[in-house]
Amino acid sequence: MSSATKSSACESCANRTDACKPETCGHAEKNEQEMRIKANMGRIKNRIAIVSGKGGVGKSTVTAGIAIELARNGFKVGVLDADVSGPNMPHLLGVENKRMEADENSFLPVEAAHGIKVVSVEFLISSSDSLVIWRGPLRSSLINQFLADVAWGDLDFLLVDLPPGTGDEPLSIMQTLPLTGLIVVSTPSNLSILDVSKIVNMAKMLNTRIIGVVENMAYYECPTCGEKVYPFGEDTVKRLCERYGLTLLGSIPIDPANRGTDIMVSSEGSLSKGTGDIAHKLICMLG
Ligand SMILES: Nc1ncnc2c1ncn2[C@@H]1O[C@H](COP(=O)(O)OP(=O)(O)OP(=O)(O)O)[C@@H](O)[C@H]1O
């Protein structure tokens, strides 16, 4: 960073004292990154983090499905795969094995079908089975860099797929990114429901809006007779929403269409039932 940029970052610094030296101060770097995040994210109309209390409930699958439906409806969509230790988004959106290019100022997102802009740590590592073992602060600082230094451009929606739980990355995103709100994904199972309350409390503490809840793996529809079977219980997510005053955005069944490959983005490929309705609800609420 040039000393002129450092000086201007220093001017707005809350920690500034008369003894500050812009050339050596770490705060200036941080402030400058915050300014870049603000400018970059200011060009995105809706910034939404997709969260879950528990792993494996289908958060990434739901994120990819909503992104595709929004893009199919003509919206400009970006997806940030903030699950640094277990990135799946390139596979779900059919852009595995791609690399993220960079020019001298920014990273350039990989473009998936329907013009969806995708950013994932997987585009930076040698192969998709390479292991990323980084401690929390390093993972959070990479995510901040993706927010500050990726040329996202003007978008209608940025969907941030977070790792499950209330750890470093969810906290860091909620503190750094001016979020429009959260979408919480839960299955109807009791354990998944229990962990949603932790997310609700975290959102309250950080003053972050919960846009709504998606019920995933809600039921299974018999292909022969059409009967709906509810293996994890019926109406548990609906009751949870009533308890906390949350909007139920919709329910997605257990469906082979969600097998986690790029079939989701082929023009013939049909998305799982329910995803389209959820995207339309979001468009009505925020579009
Ligand atoms: N509605 C569904 N029907 C059938 N399979 C599903 C459905 N939703 C998700 N799956 C499958 O469940 C598995 C977990 O999904 P996914 O990776 O999206 O969960 P996740 O919550 O993002 O996991 P984590 O955050 O712990 O990595 C995947 O194999 C996915 O294909």
Automatic annotation (TrEMBL):
Query: Which PROSITE patterns does the record cross-reference, listed alphabetically?
Result: MRP (PS01215)
Residues at which ATP binds: G53, K54, G55, G56, V57, G58, K59, S60
User: What InterPro entries does UniProt report for this protein, alphabetically?
Assistant: Mrp-like_CS, Mrp/NBP35_ATP-bd, NUBPL-like, P-loop_NTPase, YlxH/NBP35
Q: Which CDD domains match?
A: Mrp_NBP35
Gene3D superfamilies, per the entry: P-loop containing nucleotide triphosphate hydrolases (3.40.50.300)
GO annotation, biological process: iron-sulfur cluster assembly
Cite a single GO MF annotation: ATP hydrolysis activity
Listed A to Z, the keywords are: ATP-binding, Hydrolase, Iron, Iron-sulfur, Metal-binding, Nucleotide-binding
What biological function has been recorded for the protein in this entry? Binds and transfers iron-sulfur (Fe-S) clusters to target apoproteins. Can hydrolyze ATP.
Assembly and partners are described as: Homodimer.
Q: Which family does it belong to?
A: Belongs to the Mrp/NBP35 ATP-binding proteins family.
In Swiss-Prot or TrEMBL terms, this protein is called: Iron-sulfur cluster carrier protein
From which source organism is this entry? Answer: Methanocella conradii (strain DSM 24694 / JCM 17849 / CGMCC 1.5162 / HZ254)
